Amino acid sequence: MGAGKGGRGPACLNVALLACLLARAAAQVDPATCDAVGPRVMCGTTATTQETCAALGCCFAGPQDKEAWQPDVYLASCFYPNNDPAGYELSDPAQLDASGLGNAALGIQTSTLPQLGPDVQTAGLEIQQLGPDIVHIRIFDQANPRWEVPGQFFSPTSLLAGGNASTPTGQSQLLVQAQASPFGLTVLRVDTANDGPSRATFDSSGQRLIFKDQYIEWSTKVDPNSFLYGAGERASETTYITRNGYPYALWNRDESPTVTMRNTYSHWPFILVVEADGTAWGALMLSSNGMDVVATTDKLTWRMTGGIIDLYVFIGPSPLSVLEQFTRLVGRPAMQPYWAFGFHQGRYGYLGVDNLTDVVSKYQSASIPLEAIWSDLDYMFDGRLFTLNPYTYPGDRMREFLTNLHASNQSWVPLLNPGVKVDPDYPAYLEGLRQEIFLKDIEDNYYIGWVWPGGVSFPDFGWSPQADVYWQEQLAQFDTLAPWDGLCLDMNEISNFCDGEPLCNMPSTDALVNQLNFPQTTCQLQCTDPSASGLSVPMLQLSNPPYWIANGLTADALTTSTVSVLINHTTGALEYDAHPLYGMLQARASYASYAALKQRRPFILTRSTYVGAGAYTAHWTGDNNSTWADMQWSVPGVLAAGLAGIPMAGADICGFYGNATEQLCGRWIELGAWYPFARDYYGLLSNPQELYQWDSVAEAARSALGLRYRLLPLYYTLMQASTETGAPIMRPLFLNFPFDSATLPISTQFMIGVSVLVTPALAENETDSVQGYFPQGLWFSLWNSQDIIDARNGGQIEVLPAPPGQAPAFQRGGTSLILQGPPDGEPAPLLTSGVRASPLSVVAALSQFVTNRNATANANLTAPPPPTDPITSFGYIYNDDGGLSVETTPGCCNFLQFNTTVTYDPTIDVHFGVMQIQFGKPRADPASLAQCQDTTQPSVPYPALRRIDVLGWQRGAVNATLQVGTSVVNFSPDQFFVDGQKLTFTLPGGEILFQCPFDVTSGTLTWQSPPPPPPPPPPPVPPSPPPFPAPLPPPSPSPPPPPPPPPPSPPVVVGPNVPGQSPPPPPPGAVPVGPNTPAGTPSPSPAAGQSPPGVSLPPLEVSTPPPPPPPTPLAG
User: Fold this and answer.
1) 323-327, 349-353, 993-997: which has the minimum mean pLDDT?
2) Most buried by CB count within 10 Å: which residue of 307, 452, 983, 1102?
3) Is 292 one of the annotated active-site residues of the chain?
């Protein structure tokens, strides 16, 4: 069984302790050779005292330094001297070119820590450049081939798999400098744009290099004032890596994120470094061996249990550009279907079809959105994959339920584990045997583990191409039995209720077949302990490597709660090396199967991942607790997944284990409504926690999810952008504000894209308010746009009201949000399909207030902008069919931009507003916009636009005009108004329609502030006194009767019909803007001074706006 806390073979065994003491009694350790944060290889035993340790000539140190929130981690107290120099020498520096690139050899110069094995005597060195901003450093054993992570498992378009579709061209941004003796490398970022000084990023000069068979160590210098992020996955209070030497272990295991710092389900050996000045660089140690990442004040160290040094350095210089470079290497995230951004509900414990029906019905009755219902093991027959329980989930009733669910545009997502039950009467198991697709043990028999169904065998995903074929065949049969819409992959670390012994057998026929109850989590297999299995010395060393990573914080064996590290994959690779890849390879097979079977965009959710898995799957943080601490830890957890290239991520809302309280669940849905993946999911023994279970939680859910659903165009657009840039959807503040050092440690706030800043209430005592930081700028509340944070003088901390159901959320000035939902007063959609059928509205938050010259809104600015500087706002949406068809490359018509510019004429104190509405991708080559005019391309349908809000406009407005091509629509005065600082354009009874492609690809909305009133005339000269008595004035004529009210404004149609297609009938009274007839003939433009039918045209003022500057969209 798994051993921890030194139970894996101490250096001096108890029976030989006296001999050790005699041999070392005269030894006195030099304190300089001892490093408490270095690799601690046990000297003596766990009971060795400090006095005995000194007599052994070893070092002694107490517990690891840690933050108050970090738990104790087991490290040997008595350990061998570990701070001696070690390194190699570059044999012929001339083999590297002037840029430091090329191939060379390294010879051993100084050795240390013989307890960890012999050193590689001669190593090969390869330094290659991948595009202008990535350098690849590979150090390998020249004499013996060693394990390397295969590139073929990554996305075909990734650099690792040989793709280069997104690799930029241009001048190199990096330079490598090599130090010959002792060997070291410095990667410099070259300022090619400004011809400025080069700056070091990765820098191993003066750091030791240890290269052994089962221990590799290499370090880089890091600035004490920089912040480091990454090295996941684990629960943590912080987004950043602590710099106290605490080991961050990487090794996938079935370990819930209910204790901070304990390694959990995923292996992300990527590090993002943000310097104090806001510049950034990154490093990926492409290794799937067990690993500790250790950061101290001045260096970052990787310690690995095998493989090679396979290091990629990303030059940056911004955090977002590092993520672009990283995902270019490992694979861009996969686009998700639109419905996946809806709200999901599931649990372990929906014990029958009636349960599912009841939950769906109650969500509907409570008017709470529900997009998908999820099923755990309950639906299976005794844990057998691809089956239905004939008693609680009979096939005919389940299919009837799913037919009704799909008719309501809702989805069903079943859970699948990788383990296939060992059962001679189980077709899926027999087929796996026939196709020879299961993992094998050291005796070349099929390896057996123990999980929920009992004894299981595991498909060898990826390594065996036939295993992927088998998986698709089984999914196809299951889809016939119960049509599924997505797949949830669980227990794929690989989880095992045994402790990874090399040989295990089934105990009896009863355990093999006749399990009438859920299997227990106690291993019931007959397993052989590695020490008694007759393994060779090399095999024993793999089972018990000389360096113990901080696995589970207790130095657990690598096999704890998983399979044997001696498993043979089909190609001969050992699980010791390949273990963290399994979850990604199952997701990869599932993604390919889904696409082939359904012919639409897949939705896969997996628990275990490796870097690059985002190209296939979404991810959740695992089986958390229903506690306030777990809710707070979920924020760094979801942010970490985004930084690792998996933007579609979330945590189980309200918690999986334990019983959520009403207050906790109410606050958690306020937070969880912002996760990219939003799902309430809980365990078998927990009290019900569906959002309708408490009235207050239901009300909070309607509020929080109502706003989320209006923001679905934003989430969907950010997801598409991530497929091209790797930028996360939910992101830490520093990604958008890297030059504001106050954002670097923030771990309780986050942003959605570049537009929205969220400050959730995460503590039980935050009942009415919460404190948050606002970077420099204007910030407008999404709950009440009149609530504004003016941080234009610099970042500031604010105390914010946090009423139930409304996590404080603010829109950043300078950004435009495109929302979707029904007009005010109409019921909110409960499904994403209802959102997609609703009209659009635009909220353009200006980067500065628009005021007259005498206003005081800018009076307190320490550095007010010049009044003639343009005031801007920009946003766009991505639009397609939501993933209902086979994936295609986005085109010009899939993007619709809204770019607002306000200019000022100080001579007349008038502001001119221009909103350009433009089809086409932001920042795209203008030549690509021609596709929007290619009427042979498929039409992309868009919902209508019914409302535009401009935030920060504190003046009146007149002369609102919409122009598309030669067609002009003049807004009547009742169609736009100013309320406080918000200017609103509405089309009562009308709307703006969009159509693309067409030869007119943009329109312009213009308006202006009214000219100031003229100065009062001089007082008149008093007239001569009238005669007395004065004559009576003539009687005033009766006022004319008021004119009848104008009819409701009809829709404005932007764009034509596609030639060759029948045009849709226009709404009654529609005003066509641009050609919109079957023959494509131009519609008549209104004559000067005339209105189109049904649209009131106010007289234009003499002033005319200057032409707007070009769009200046925000990055990211």
Assistant:
1) 993-997
2) 983
3) no
